[in-house]
């Protein structure tokens, strides 16, 4: 395991020259209608803007072509099909959200930077220097997400001939799968397709509450816990980092487990159990009786058992549940890794169709509460999304994915992405957000456990201070 980058590490500074933000509207006529969001879409925890970034090198075959022009034109054409994204959110009574399909357009920024991709290093991973310059915080309305543009794209040309595509999307409109579907539509049209290979499908009524609603499960993921000490601290400052786990690291973790568990457990489950322990130890080591949560983002599209009938191909709204498992700090960190692993397997098993429906009914009947960010370790696994397939004509990206972990710099949410490092090793990159002092403890926990395993010492010795 290697800590690739940290936002607390020294970073380069460069200048970006931005044109004023412009509105890009659909290239053709679109319906003017109101569309209701689903009861998953409009929960409080998704009323935010999510960001992602793509880095593309220079391509000799595209010499003379301007990525800004190509992408702007393709975006305008894609919005004819995804016309809801060119509209504005309105709020109905009781907080229900809807899209007014006004065709006003999305924000687009053309920019140039006096930097080359080579200056970003040999491994292109977040956190990226000067990211606020690569994705400008354009002013929205005073109503927050209401009446504001739903999407902002900035395309920044680089001195080397490469470019950076950065996007900020209103999360109530799309989850990660939906955002990627829209981005791929732009890329396919940029390469000359008359329409994308996957056509968008709205059908948000498929994920609305039953009549009558029936909350049939406990949902600790929506129970708000008290503030932690670090959140009340006036000196609290978040830190962002990327960690790469290669095959040797995963093999080392498997050797910490009983043989039957090591053989029957997926890389995702083992890595999640391990990181949950390290994350908990880094944040809560002084409170062994405190309860902490593990939540796994379970996408309802990928397994037929989640929904029957399954969602139609092309559905681009949010379609996930967040089943949670609870443990005390002491139980999680003092017991063998196998204890955490058995717990880590439960969220995916719980996420049946009934669990998804129960989640929807709870959101609709309890005022669309936010999911808990406090004392939570939330894992979003993006490895099934085929991220690297995006190609605007300049080839595949050197990196595509979130620009950082966390939600509004609040620790908890982390992302797993497939990645091949500069040495040619295939593995998993984990994006993490923690307070600065906790990030160092987190790194020490990871490196210490992997090192101890190399010396055939018991894992509990690294956690005995709990």
Task: Describe the model.
The chain is α+β, with helices and mostly antiparallel strands and 466 residues long. It folds into 2 domains: 2-206, Chloramphenicol acetyltransferase-like domain (Chloramphenicol Acetyltransferase), CATH 3.30.559; 220-463, Chloramphenicol Acetyltransferase, CATH 3.30.559. The chain contains 13 helices and 19 strands. It has helices spanning 67-81, 131-134, 176-190, 229-232, 247-254, 259-264, 267-284, 329-334, 337-344, 346-350, 353-365, 436-454, 460-463; strands spanning 2-6, 16-18, 22-24, 34-36, 49-56, 88-91, 97-100, 106-113, 151-157, 163-170, 238-245, 291-296, 298-299, 320-321, 324-328, 376-381, 399-402, 413-420, 426-435. A 7-stranded mixed β-sheet has the order 1-11-19-18-16-12-15. Strands 2, 3, 5, 8, 9, 10 and 17 form a 7-stranded mixed β-sheet that branches. Strands 4-7-6 form a 3-stranded antiparallel β-sheet, with no helix packed on it. Helix 2 links the parallel strand 8 and strand 9 (151-157). Helix 1 packs across helix 3, helix 7 packs across helix 9 and helix 7 crosses helix 12 (436-454). The radius of gyration is 22 Å and the shape is globular.
């Amino acid at each position: 395991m290697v800590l690739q980058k940290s936002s607390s590490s020294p970073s380069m500074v460069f200048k970006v020259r931005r044109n004023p933000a412009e509105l890009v509207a659909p290239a053709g006529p679109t319906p003017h209608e109101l569309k209701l969001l689903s009861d998953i879409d409009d929960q409080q925890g998704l009323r935010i803007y999510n960001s992602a970034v793509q880095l593309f090198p220079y391509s000799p075959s595209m010499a003379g072509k301007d990525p800004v022009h190509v992408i702007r034109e393709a975006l305008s054409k894609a919005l004819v099909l995804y016309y809801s994204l060119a509209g504005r959110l309105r709020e109905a009574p009781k907080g229900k959200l809807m899209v007014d399909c006004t065709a006003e357009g999305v924000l687009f920024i053309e920019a140039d930077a006096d930097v080359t991709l080579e200056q970003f290093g040999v491994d292109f991973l977040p956190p990226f220097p000067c990211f606020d310059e690569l994705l400008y915080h354009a002013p929205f309305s005073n109503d927050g997400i209401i009446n504001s543009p739903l999407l902002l794209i900035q395309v920044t040309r680089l001195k080397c001939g490469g470019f950076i595509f950065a996007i900020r999307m209103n999360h109530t409109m799309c989850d990660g799968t939906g955002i990627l579907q829209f981005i791929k539509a732009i890329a396919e049209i940029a390469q000359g397709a008359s329409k994308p290979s996957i056509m968008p499908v709205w059908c948000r009524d498929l994920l609305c509450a039953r009549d009558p609603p029936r909350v049939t499960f406990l949902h600790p993921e929506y129970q708000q816990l008290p503030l932690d000490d670090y959140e009340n601290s006036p000196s609290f400052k978040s830190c962002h980092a990327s960690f790469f786990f290669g095959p040797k690291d995963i093999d080392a973790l498997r050797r910490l487990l009983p043989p039957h568990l090591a053989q029957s457990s997926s890389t995702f489950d083992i890595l999640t159990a391990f990181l949950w322990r390290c994350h908990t130890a880094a944040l809560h080591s002084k409170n062994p009786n405190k309860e902490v949560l593990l939540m796994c983002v379970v996408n309802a599209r990928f397994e037929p058992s989640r929904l029957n009938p399954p969602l139609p191909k092309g559905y681009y709204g949010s379609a996930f549940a967040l089943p949670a498992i609870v443990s005390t700090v002491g139980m999680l960190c003092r017991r063998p890794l196998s204890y955490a692993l058995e717990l880590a397997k439960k969220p995916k098993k719980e996420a049946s169709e009934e669990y998804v429906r129960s989640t929807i009914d709870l959101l609709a009947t309890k005022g669309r509460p936010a999911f808990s960010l406090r004392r939570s370790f939330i894992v979003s696994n993006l490895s099934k999304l085929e991220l690297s397939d995006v190609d605007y004509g300049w080839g595949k990206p050197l990196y595509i994915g979130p620009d950082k972990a966390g939600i509004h710099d609040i620790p908890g949410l982390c992302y797993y992405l497939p990645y091949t490092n500069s040495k040619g090793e295939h593995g998993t990159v984990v994006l993490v957000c923690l307070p600065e002092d906790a990030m160092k403890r987190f790194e020490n926990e990871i490196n210490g456990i992997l090192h101890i395993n190399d010396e055939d010492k018991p894992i509990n010795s690294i956690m005995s201070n709990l």
